[in-house]
């Protein structure tokens, strides 16, 4: 006997696959087992027991046209037993071998093929049904997706984060009804408090019922760090799986194909079984030409298992009919509903996660199958499709990782002396940040989409906010909180249109620093949001690719004191709007592609500092017009291509700082000595070969930078500048340092490295403010100084 377990491999699947088998597949599976048992039972009988028993017919040869069993059958049924005894005396004169020969021969030639092979057909058809049912679980193109989906589904179902997310929603949903029920309970107490009324006792028994209705929100489970990381990994897996599976519909197509094949198979089986089931007969007539061997040519045979096979056939047909009905219902289900689209509308309404997206193709089809098993799987799986849920998880993980104590350790004073908290490259903003009420400056860099919570109002000392590639949304309540408190804000983004609009409504803002590009089609217009609300703005810094000064700058012309435009090499063409900035004190036009000093600058009567760094200035003949800027104190013309300084520089008698480094100067005009107020002169990184003696007239000069030039000697008059504190002479061609350097008693920093000096004058000892730390020179030269000089320099 063949055990049914041998066929188990045809239907064996992983236990987890059961979630993708709806009730009709489960019913069909049981039906195939029953049909397989029928087939195996029939095959066992065929193999182990006699198939047919034949007896020779004694009719004369001329009557053989009539079937040999046609006369026996009626007599065998209707004639009395006495007549049968009269026939029992006939002898056939056949031995056992002849009977066996006749039985085998008649079985092969006379018995209908359906009666012979019915059990084998049942087994074959059932195996085909089994293969069709489980083929999509085995086919490489579909099994990998199914296994991946089942793996993710199980993890999502068991994840503690799923329970927490749904519990939070459940708690929010219960909050309203609970309060309402409590209110109703209070009303009930008031109306039933009066004594002596009829039915008072009944009302007192009913009174506690609202307490049963009021249910506490389910306890929210706490996630440890490991569980949080696992949930985070699940979100990434779900995203990638969704993108992969939604691309095609191979699962849906394969399922339909195997279902259509089963229906066609069912119809074929049903038709030919109903046609041939009548061929299973108890008596079988057999005519074979064996007269030379047995002496008989006609036999009447008995198919011993015909009655049993007939019953099994009808039973098998019944199972096939039920199986076929389930297949037809499945086809109706497949084509009646849009199974390539799946909507989470009910889940969105139930959980409150309105951002759960609808899915399509194979992803949708598998979710429809899951719903036939248990819709709770889809609900829990949907948690990992929600960006809101993901953001909550990220927030929770952030709060676990960045505790208030850990954040407090990162606090430090910034350049302005404010207590600053700097966070960089985090997936979000920890809620624990808002527990540090002492924070005065908050710097957020490369942090994902930020939404400031109401807890922002706890930062009562916050005055400075930096958002560097960190887009942020600010609720209206938080805008009101920051509107008059925030003094400084820095925004850095890819394009300036990404700057949040709430920034331009901060009335108390004093400094606004924006960095980003205008789109190419808008760069020439350089349109910026209106600054009218920023009535206290004093500093505006804009780093972009603007083609002109934004017109909205004039909105703050009455109180803007410092304007910085950094154009990263893009040419700034229109500067006429600068004339309206009457209160401007500091102006920076950095890397704006300027070839001349803009004439609009000379109209700024209140200007004190001008920085034209990293432009293409070759000539500064317009420097004469700076005499109209009577308050100008600092002029930075460094990092340009200036070849000479015009004589008109003498008109800048009030200038205190002049930066001309990183240019192409070879000489300095003698008229420079007439800038009597000059305290700082930086002409380093040029090509100067000599200095005019008139520099000695700069009696207020305190800082002189001459490094990285080609100076071979210094004029003695230079040492008349007795207020010099810093003298930078490094990397020139000096072969000696004049002893007059000892006259610079206020000198505290002297750089001499990179020259051709052989020795240092001992008069350096007269420079009382010069210490070893302020003397930058080769060690060999320093060691050549007299010991008492070195001791004086090394003394504290």
TrEMBL record:
It is found in: Cell membrane; Endoplasmic reticulum membrane; Lysosome membrane. Keywords: Cell membrane, Disulfide bond, Endoplasmic reticulum, Glycoprotein, Ion channel, Ion transport, Leucine-rich repeat, Lysosome, Membrane, Repeat, Transmembrane, Transmembrane helix, Transport. The chain crosses the membrane at residues 27-47, 117-137, 313-335. It comes from the Eukaryota. It catalyses: chloride(in) = chloride(out); taurine(out) = taurine(in); 2',3'-cGAMP(out) = 2',3'-cGAMP(in); iodide(out) = iodide(in). It is a multi-pass membrane protein. One of its GO terms (biological process) is aspartate transmembrane transport. Residues 1-331 form the LRRC8 pannexin-like TM region domain. InterPro entries: Leu-rich_rpt (IPR001611), Leu-rich_rpt_typical-subtyp (IPR003591), LRR_dom_sf (IPR032675), LRR_domain-containing (IPR050216), LRRC8_Pannexin-like (IPR021040). PROSITE patterns: LRR. One of its GO terms (molecular function) is volume-sensitive anion channel activity. Coiled coil: none annotated. GO terms for cellular component: endoplasmic reticulum membrane; lysosomal membrane; monoatomic ion channel complex; plasma membrane. Gene3D superfamilies: Ribonuclease Inhibitor. The keyword Transmembrane applies. Belongs to the LRRC8 family. This is Volume-regulated anion channel subunit LRRC8E. The gene is LRRC8E.
